[in-house]
Amino acid sequence: MKSNKLITLSGLALTCQSVFAAEAVSTPATGFLQIMLALLFVIALMLALAWVMKRVAPMQGQQQLGMKIIGSLHLGQREKIMVVEVGDQWLILGVTPSGISRLESMPRQEHLLQNGTPVAGTAFQSWLQSKIAKRAESQNTGSNT
Questions:
Q1: Sequence-ordered list of residues with C-beta below 8 angstroms from that of 86, at least 6 positions apart, any chain
Q2: Separation of alpha carbons 56 and 109, rounded Å
Q3: What are the phi and psi torsion angles at 119 (to 5°)?
Q4: Alpha-carbon torsion 117, 120, 122, 126, what sign?
Q5: How far is CA 105 from CA 73, 83, 135, in A?
Q6: Distance CA 82, CA 72 (A)
Q7: Rg of the chain's alpha carbons, rounded to an integer?
């Protein structure tokens, strides 16, 4: 009797296995579609995480470093001069696609700021022009000797 039940159970298991195997057969198109959907899901997940990191990371960095962009002046399509406040110093930076270079540094200029925002005026322009003229003069006198 025990062997009879065992034979019946094994036959039933084989029948179930063959039925489920017949239903589980997929066409190559179905398998390809599943792979493509999984790939698109992973790519979308990566893009979403990159977007979140881009939105969250700069805010944390600015608060920790104590840096603030005071202003910028575009010189060309991809070149610009930026004034960045670090502590009580202003750094004048030249920014190009190939790098960033410090052009000059100066103490914080309270009179150029009004309510924490830069004031459009000639004080900074005249200061920058005088520095450029001094640099050009020193390069000219250095090359004449």
A1: 65, 66, 67
A2: 31
A3: -105, 130
A4: positive
A5: 16, 9, 14
A6: 4
A7: 34
What token pair was written down for 17? 């296995």
Two tokens, residue 92 = 């004048």
- Which residues of the chain have a pLDDT value below 50? none
| β-sheet bridge partners, residue 101 | 94
Strands 89-96 and 99-107: antiparallel
pLDDT of residue 5: 56
- What's this model's pTM, rounded to 2 decimal places? 0.40
Strand partners, 63: none
The end-to-end CA distance of the chain, in Å, is 116
H or E element in which residue 121 lies: none
d(CA 66, CA 85): 8
8 A C-beta contact, residue 23 and residue 15:
no
